[in-house]
Write a structure and sequence with these properties.
- By secondary structure, the protein is of the alpha/beta class.
- It folds into 3 domains: about 130 residues, no CATH class; about 90 residues, Beta-Lactamase (2-Layer Sandwich); about 180 residues, P-loop containing nucleotide triphosphate hydrolases (Rossmann fold), CATH 3.40.50.300.
- It contains 15 helices and 15 strands.
- Strands 9-8-10-11-7-12-13-14-15 form a 9-stranded mixed sheet, sandwiched between helices.
- The N and C termini lie far apart (about 60 Å).
- The N terminus is likely disordered.
């Protein structure tokens, strides 16, 4: 909501704060008022009734084209009514007083005033339509406007806003368009600014690209005009309210029970892990799951562009990068964070996403006593992951021989876990691969677990299973034995082999 949250001290908007005759606000002026702080009275005065807009309740039309036309007219009527009510609300409410109330009291105040506006202006609305309007306006003033109902749904993975009129969501791996829209591009930009300002960032013409996060950890990316031609583009990668676990991934089919057991052991015995995958493949979700098996006594430091990891351990330090200010100064890069956290006595370092020269500092940390460190990287296979790491080291300006770089990689990374989003929208862990050494100038890897696709069902869903590659003792067997986990590891791999037979 606007302003600072406070307690409800009984300072309610009373009749003596009402204006005698305010000038009506045109709907076209509403879009810039979302973030204005006005010191005005709190309820609309009586005025001549206006002609009521067309009612939103309709009879069933006789044909599909007619249905689309009526729905379009209905939608336009609703947004026109909402614009008029919102304009009158902003013209009468004192947002400085509203900011002193707790969220529930503020909602009640807004609802009271909106009900007065609807009655005075004589809008013809059903009770259901009035409730929908009240909720929409409360969301506009106190929340994220039209996005609120989407953010409340736990089955949505991504929200994609392409300008004020086009909002898409991803549900069950499939992208679909919604009927939700913003009043105009200015309202969309205002909501984008509201989101990023909560984490001390800004988005405007001078800084049109911004990464941020919502209070629940959901990742936010905004591209504003002039870079985004048809209005601001907002993309939200939603986090589920209940944090996923490996056991839940097993129920979803992302990994087999035996494969999940192998992942638990890999995390428990402090293997250095890189999670590889494409966009939307579930890398960060899997990283969150693996951190559940870090000992609670360990000191963990996370480095992220926008903080979204949700570690449950008590001794966690969360670091976040910072963009430059208006003068182009004060930037703190991922590499700065990784280099600095080495001075903070970490036992594990977790990098949310490795995308540049900071990979060299992470490898150095993995190779100098910070076993059990983890990170994610965009790539389509374990072998491509290793190639990308080499490329990112070269991006940092290091003029090291290729063999030396590969020796550093082999000495640092123990396991690569490949996540993928398949063509039916499902997410699967397709490889658990260990890095075992070098032969000449070539890095040698071996797969421990693979996901084999066998076909698809009548609904187009892919069918497959996770199988062991028959490796009797993985390269990290001695590490598992050191932590007393060798029997669990052997049991899990044997069970996968029997299942494959």
């Amino acid at each position: 909501m606007f302003g600072k949250r406070g307690s409800d001290d009984g300072n309610r908007f009373t009749p003596e704060f009402r204006q005698p005759a305010p000038t009506p606000v045109a709907p076209a002026a509403v879009s810039s008022a979302d973030t204005a702080v006005l010191a005005r009275p709190a309820a609309p005065p009586p005025s001549a009734p206006v002609a009521p807009p067309a009612r939103r309740t309709i009879d069933a039309p006789s044909s599909a084209p007619d249905l689309k036309r009526v729905q379009r007219e209905k939608s336009e009527s609703y947004y026109d009514t909402k614009s008029q009510v919102f304009a009158a609300l902003i013209d009468t409410i004192d947002l400085s007083q509203l900011s002193k109330l707790d969220p529930e009291s503020a909602r009640e105040e807004i609802r009271d005033i909106v009900n007065d506006i609807i009655a005075i202006k004589n809008f013809a609305m059903t009770i259901a339509e009035q409730e929908e309007l009240l909720e929409d306006i409360c969301n506009d003033v106190l929340g994220y406007g039209p996005l609120e109902p989407l953010l409340a749904r736990d089955d949505i993975a991504d929200i994609m806003v392409n300008g004020s009129k086009n909002v898409y969501i991803e549900v069950n791996g499939k992208v679909e368009q919604t009927g939700i829209r913003f009043r105009d591009n200015q309202q969309l930009l205002n909501i984008c600014q509201r989101i990023v300002s909560q984490v001390g960032r800004r988005v405007d013409e001078s800084s049109p690209i911004c990464d941020a996060r919502l209070p629940d950890g959901s990742r936010v990316n905004v591209i504003a005009p002039p870079l985004s031609i048809d209005g601001a583009t907002l993309t939200i990668r939603k986090f589920k309210k209940d944090k996923l676990t490996l056991d839940q991934l097993v129920r979803f089919g992302a990994i087999s029970p035996q494969g999940a057991e192998v992942l638990k052991i890999i995390s428990r015995v402090r293997c250095n892990i890189v999670i590889s995958g494409g966009t939307g493949s579930g890398k960060t979700t899997l990283l969150n799951c693996l951190t559940n098996y870090i000992d609670r006594e360990e000191r963990v430091i996370t480095c992220e562009d926008s903080a979204e990891l949700q570690l449950q351990q008590p001794h966690v330090v969360r670091l976040e990068t910072r963009p430059p200010n208006l003068e182009g100064e004060g930037e703190v890069t991922m590499r700065d964070l990784v280099k600095n956290c080495l001075r903070m006595r970490p036992e594990r370092i977790i990098v949310g996403e490795v995308r540049g020269p900071e990979v060299f500092d992470l490898l150095q940390a993995m190779n100098t006593g910070h076993d059990g460190s983890m990170g994610t990287i965009h790539s389509n296979s374990p072998r491509e992951c290793l190639n990308r790491i080499e490329s990112m080291i070269a991006m940092g300006g290091y003029s090291l021989p290729q063999k030396t770089v590969r020796e550093i990689v082999v000495g640092s990374i123990d396991v690569i876990i490949q996540a993928a989003r398949l063509r039916d929208g499902s997410r699967r862990i397709t490889h658990i691969t260990e890095v075992i050494g070098m032969e000449g100038d070539v890095i040698i890897t071996q797969d421990i677990v693979l996901y084999n696709i066998k076909g698809e069902d009548a609904n187009g869903r892919l069918l497959g299973e996770h199988v062991s590659t028959g490796i009797g003792r993985p390269h990290f067997w001695d590490r598992a034995r050191y932590y007393g986990e060798e029997q669990r590891l052997a049991t899990a791999l044997e069970a996968m082999e029997k299942r494959a037979d």
